[in-house]
Every structure is written in structure tokens, then in C-alpha cells.
Amino acid sequence: MGSEMSTPAPQGGEGGEVQQQQQQQQAPNDAIAQQQQMPLHPQSGLPSALVIVGPSGVGKNTLIQRLREGNTSFGHSVSHTTRQPRPGEKHGEHYFFTSKEQFAKEIAEDKFIEFAEVHGNLYGTSVTAVRKVLESGRTCILDIDVQGARLVRKTPLKAIFVFIAPPSLEDLAKRLFTRGTEAAEQIQKRLANAKEEINSVNERGLYDYLIINDNLDDAVDKLRAIATRALQGLDPEPGKVPESVLIEDAPLPGMPPLDPTAPQENGAQGLLLSEDPPGAASAAADPLPNPTAAAPPSTTANSASDKEAQPAVTSNGGTGMRVVAVARRKEKLEALQVHMHNLRIPPTHFLPVVCDITKDAEVATLPRIVAKRWPDAGGVDVLINNAGLSRNDASLMDGNVASWVEMLSTNVLGTTMAIKAAVQDMRRRNKWGHIINMVGLSGHRIPDGPQGGGFYCATKSAVKTITDGLRQEARGKMLPLRVSSISPGVVETEFFTVKNFGDAEAARSTIQNYASCLQPQDVAQTILWCLSAPDHVEVNDVVVRPTDQLL
Ligand SMILES: Nc1ncnc2c1ncn2[C@@H]1O[C@H](COP(=O)(O)OP(=O)(O)OP(=O)(O)O)[C@@H](O)[C@H]1O
Ligand SMILES: Nc1nc2c(ncn2[C@@H]2O[C@H](COP(=O)(O)O)[C@@H](O)[C@H]2O)c(=O)[nH]1
């Protein structure tokens, strides 16, 4: 996720030095040991510290202020910073505003438990500031960035770590702009760093709690319960950070306003999911059309990221479908978004979402994202599972196990988790739509070849069985869910490039073995045909291949 988001870690120049110095900060507790009259690691029963982390503008200070209102049990460690004070900020109250030279001197004097370069300025927590609060028998609150949290984790300071996340990057951007304390350029920098900071939630063992600061009162209540534990010196409760966390992406900035007189789509929504592997496309004989597109009410599709996805996604033209395109590669989705914009498809009808379909928590969030972005849409009515990743080092005799795992988790588990998320959304609304899985010819036969496409074919056979199994399950429960699969032969997509680990030349020579290939539009048309069948007709499987493809 978020390859464009830069990291907040210092790089080069002053930042580079900071990083080196941080690395030398092997035992920040040395500084503590030298200076302490009382230990920073209180005995059990005494208050723990509370470390609050989160991207700039998420509301950390607001929450801390609300927590401390009328409650003297919580103290705030005042940090040092080299950034300029904002209007109204007071030295010694909001920060100790310090010159770079003074900050460097204090680093050399081992004054800090942790310090880091954040958004271009230095920030640090002094031992004295923390001790001052602890000595008064209160819980000390540290409001620090991710790098600082990692460093504090290594000290003996007994603390509970809480990550505050925004409901979406869009909300975060709004908050920073509304706060109005930074210039646009600084806001862009903070937003660019936010994605990486949010990703730190997935670092095992870094945080004890995750709070999404959506409704402020709810977030304050949650923080108060955690802070009370810290005050009582209790250990954090286990399992309070989900295994994987996805925060919805912000829309692309800078799109020109749409022409209000341009014709508008209307109607259905659906998801288009695609495999979107880090490289390109795949296997022996029948690559999947990378984009699979469209459907009525709400369509979600995985692996909608490739250029080839465009015809499929844009095939919603004239059908009134609203399409959610889901893929791992943000830059591909952005290109698709620009393309849709140029086609005058309004944001009400096309929603790109970055999501790794091998991550259960991310996939499970998709219907919630659709509901939030398109509250009028109801939910997901159509799911198109396009996941189809193949690797050329996956022979059954001596293949790479990592490639087997990658194919299995993308093609089989990704598809199944997406089905579960879509079906649960349909059940919640008691509105049953259509699920279309891309099986491919590989789900029906194994092509010849010394490289061996057997494992890929096994995953596609599994998708075929899952398609049939889902239909049986729906029938058994008397649900009017329609389940179809499409089995294309060779389609000209990135499939072979991914299969060859990005080697475009190898991909080209594979494609040249075929006089002609299917184009993504051909597959998109087949999808539309399945969807257009009257309610009492369920297309089960459509095999479609280039006229001159033999096997
Ligand atoms: N739940 C919320 N809903 C809407 N707005 C909020 C919410 N929480 C905080 N805000 C607003 O968001 C803005 C940023 O909040 P705040 O200054 O507390 O963020 P912060 O995380 O401390 O930022 P920084 O790290 O830059 O110091 C403020 O204008 C605040 O009023
Ligand atoms: N590592 C540290 N990070 C800190 C400290 N004090 C604040 N911060 C973080 O910096 C950003 C920006 O703060 P702002 O006041 O300029 O908006 C924010 O996210 C804080 O969490 C510190 O002592 N160490």
C-alpha cells in the first residue's frame, strides 16, 4: 500500500546524522540511569506512562486535552523541538522551543529518552520532563511520533502505547487544513508521511491499543479507559490491535472540476477485484484479464490496477453501474482514476481503493469503505474476482515454495475472503446480487510445458470448485445469489510479465506464441453479458478463447 507515501524517517543532511545518532542511542536508559533520582520504571501499582502516537492532525492533542480536563492525575511531558512556535504557543508549556545547535548539544549530553526528525524538524522527550510528572505520582503522557515510540519501547519506561488513527486520509487532510496552523506545503509533507505512520500499526508489539478517532466523544471514552489502566499501573489488555489495519486512501488531489453538463452514469454499484501482484502477469496458458469489470448496483473487483483493466472498468459505460476498483498498486489505480476522470465518469461512479486482497482485515473493510464513500449506494451488489497470479518458478517437482504460497494466498484465499465480505454485506441488506469469479482455461486443463503450470492450474481449479461450492451453499440456503465464472484463454495483459518476474521481453515472446490474444474488452463484454441475463437465468461458466488458440 501507499508506495508514493514517503517515510518520516530522516534522510541525508541533518536527518541522516539524526538517524546515526539514534542508532547510537543503544541504551537510552543510560541517560536515565545517570540522571535518575527515582527510577523511571515504577514498581507495580504505581502509574505507568501513556504513549500517544498518530499522524499529524489526527487529534492527539485534542484527545489529551479532553482527558486532562478536570483530572489532575494525568501530566503531559513537554517536548523539545526545533520548529518555530505557532501563534499562541508558549515556551515551556507547549514545547521547549530550541535552536538546532542547542538541540544537538542536548543530544550529546544524553538528555533525551528519545528524539527524532519529524516532518523536517527535530523533536525530543527529555528524561527530566518525564521524571517531573512521574515524581508527582501521576501518569505521564508522551505525545510522540512513530520513530520516538520505537525508541521508547526499548527503554525500561513502563508504558502503555496507543496509536490514534484517522477514519480516512481524507478526514485527516480536512483536519489539517481546518486547523490552519501549517502552510499548504507543510500539510502536504505531513499527509505524505501519514500513510507510512499508519502502516506502523501493523508492526507487531509496537502498540497496545488502536483507537480510530472518528467520533471525538467515543475516542475520548476509549482513551480514558486505557489511561485509567495506566494510572493504576495495570498491564495493557492483550489483543487490542487488529492483525492488519487498512485505512482508506484519500482521493487524488488536483482533479479539475467535472463538467456538470456531461452525461452522468446512474444506477448500480459493484466491486472489481484484481490480483495486482508486485510485478506483472502470469502463467502458462491463460492469463486472466487483469481488470474485470463492472456490475450493477455496486461492483467491487480485485486487481483492477493494470492498464488493461481500463476497458473492463470503463465498460460500465451505458450500464449505469458504479464501480469500486480494488488493487494493491496505488500508482496503477491512480492512473486508472485519471483515465476515468478523463472519460467524465464522476467520482460517484468510480472509486479506487488500495487493498491487499491476501489480508483478511483489509478485505473485510471493503464494504465499510464503500458504504462510507457512497452512503446512497446501499452496498456491494456485484463482486468480480479477478485475482490470477502465476509465477514461472513454480514447478511441482522443484518449484519455489514462496511462489506456491503467493499464488495460493492471492488466487484462492483472496478470492474466498472477498466472497465472504461481499456475501456478508448482501446478507446485512438482505439484497442478493451476483458473484463472478475468473477461473480461466487453467481451471479446466493443464497446458503442456517444461516449466510446469500445474500449481497455477491447481489454484484455478480451486476457484472453479469454490464457484460451484458457493452456488450449492446459496441454493441450500434458498438464497437468490447468482454465481458465475468466466474462463478466458490467453488475454493480452500484464499476466505474463508478472509470471516472468517483470521480464517484459520474456512476456512478449510468450505472447508471440499466439497469433492473436483476447483483449480485456472481450472479457469485459462477457462479464456484462453474464450480468445482463434475466433474474431467472444464472450463467454458470463461460469458456472464451482466441479463435486460433489450440489448448
Ligand atoms: N474526532 C474528530 N473529529 C473532527 N475533528 C477533530 C477530531 N479530533 C480532532 N479534530 C480536529 O482536528 C484538528 C487536529 O487536531 P490536533 O491538533 O489535536 O491533532 P494532533 O494529532 O495533535 O496534531 P499534531 O501531531 O500536528 O500536533 C483540530 O482542529 C481538531 O479540532
Ligand atoms: N519523536 C517525537 N515526536 C514528537 C515529540 N513531540 C511531538 N512529536 C510529534 O511531532 C509531530 C508534529 O508535532 P507538531 O506539534 O509540530 O504538530 C506530532 O505528530 C508529534 O506527535 C517528541 O518529543 N518526540
UniProtKB/TrEMBL annotation:
Protein name per its UniProtKB record: guanylate kinase
UniProt xrefs under PANTHER family: GUANYLATE KINASE (PTHR23117:SF13), GUANYLATE KINASE-RELATED (PTHR23117)
Cited Gene3D superfamilies: Guanylate Kinase phosphate binding domain, NAD(P)-binding Rossmann-like Domain, P-loop containing nucleotide triphosphate hydrolases
Main enzyme class: transferase
Domain of life: Eukaryota
PROSITE patterns found in the cross-reference section: GUANYLATE_KINASE_1 (PS00856), GUANYLATE_KINASE_2 (PS50052)
Keyword DNA damage belongs to the record: no
Lineage start: Eukaryota, Viridiplantae, Chlorophyta, core chlorophytes, Chlorophyceae
Xref: Pfam families: adh_short, Guanylate_kin
Keywords for this protein: ATP-binding, Coiled coil, Hydrolase, Kinase, Nucleotide-binding, Transferase
